[in-house]
Every structure is written in structure tokens, then in C-alpha cells.
Amino acid sequence: MLHLAPEYSLDRNLARLSQVRRTTADLDGARVDVAADITAMPFADGAFGAILCSHVLEHVPDDRAAMAELHRVLRPGGWAMVMVPVDESLQNTYEDAAIVTPEARERAFWQHDHVRLYAPDIAGRLGRAGFEVQSVRVAATLEPGAARRYGLLCEETVFHCVRPALS
């Protein structure tokens, strides 16, 4: 499993699972196994059977290159879980390279270090990278109270991406 920009609490729990072989990677290599740019990762084609990519792509100027790299390093038949902030009121992902100040980015993209605000069309972007994509509201699939217990946001969508076995 490749865990990009690993969250401390999730990574700590994954580390306890002896049956999961994982590699952590981030642009800032200080607290990960591999310092890596998600748009040009130093891994072999098909190196991973699973990828966790939570709240990374909205920070990456060339998200299409990042999605292509996710597809490349995922083995055929493997899966990736991708999460990004999504504004359900938008039809199309909003990007404007002229928005550069932290204050303007926070107003436009919800956070000072984001470079875009995704709309539900992110599923199509992931699909164009070669994935079969299923959009899932995980919290809605759980028993009452479980989302709160697990710290999940009810409105958050998880994009379950599969690299087809024949790609």
C-alpha cells in the first residue's frame, strides 16, 4: 500500500497491521519513507496494490499528472481511495492560476494552500486517468453514530478508483 501525505492517526493505526506492507510518501520527506512528488513518483509501474490519497490533489498544480501517476504505480486490479474537498453546488471544478495569495485562495478554494476547488466532476477526471470510479458517501453506509465515532464527515465523498485488470 502506498499512503500519500499520511495522516498521523491513520498511519499509526496502519503501522500496527502486520499484514499490510505500506510505503509512505510525501513531497516533504521529513516524516515519510520516501520523499516524492506525486506528479513524478520514483516507483515502478504497478508497484502497489492499494493507494490512499486523502486531501492531496487539491494542493497539486498539475492534478492530471498526479492522477496519471496514481494510475501508473497502481497494479492492474488494484484500488485507490481518493478524497478531496468537493463543492456539490459547482458543476465544474474551479481553477484559476491567477489566484495566488493565501487570502484569495482561501476565499476561492476554501483553504490558503489549495490551488482548485473540486466539483463532482472529479470522478470524470479520475476516469480519464484510466480508473473505474465509484463515488461513495461512506458515512451514509454506516450504522447510526459510527461516522461520528470514526471522525468521518457525513457529506464527504470517497472516490474508490480501480485500475482495470487489463490496463
Question: Structural class of the secondary structure composition?
Answer: alpha/beta
- Biggest sheet details: 7 strands, mixed
Which CATH first-tier class would you pick? Alpha Beta
Multimerization state:
single chain
Q: How many discrete structural domains?
A: 1
Form type: globular
Gap between N and C termini: 19 Å
Name the average pLDDT: 93
- Report the sheet-strand fraction: 15-25%
Give the name of the CATH superfamily: Vaccinia Virus protein VP39
Helical content stands at: 10-25%
Lateral strand order in the biggest sheet: 3-2-1-4-5-9-8
> What is the fold named in CATH at topology level?
Rossmann fold
Uncertain runs with pLDDT below 50, 5 residues or more?
none
User: What's the total count of β strands?
Assistant: 9
Tally of alpha and pi helices: 5
| CATH architecture term | 3-Layer(aba) Sandwich
What is the ordering of alpha helices and beta strands? EHEEEHEEHEHEHE
Radius of gyration: 16 Å
Molecular structure report:
With 167 residues, the chain is α/β, with parallel strands linked by helices. It has one domain: Vaccinia Virus protein VP39 (Rossmann fold). It has five helices and nine strands, in the order E-H-E-E-E-H-E-E-H-E-H-E-H-E. It has a seven-stranded mixed beta sheet with strand order 3-2-1-4-5-9-8. Helix 1 links the parallel strand 1 (2-4) and strand 2 (23-26).
Task: Quickly list its features.
two-stranded antiparallel ribbon; 5 helices; 23% helix; Rossmann fold; single chain; 7-stranded mixed sheet; alpha/beta; 167 residues; 9 strands
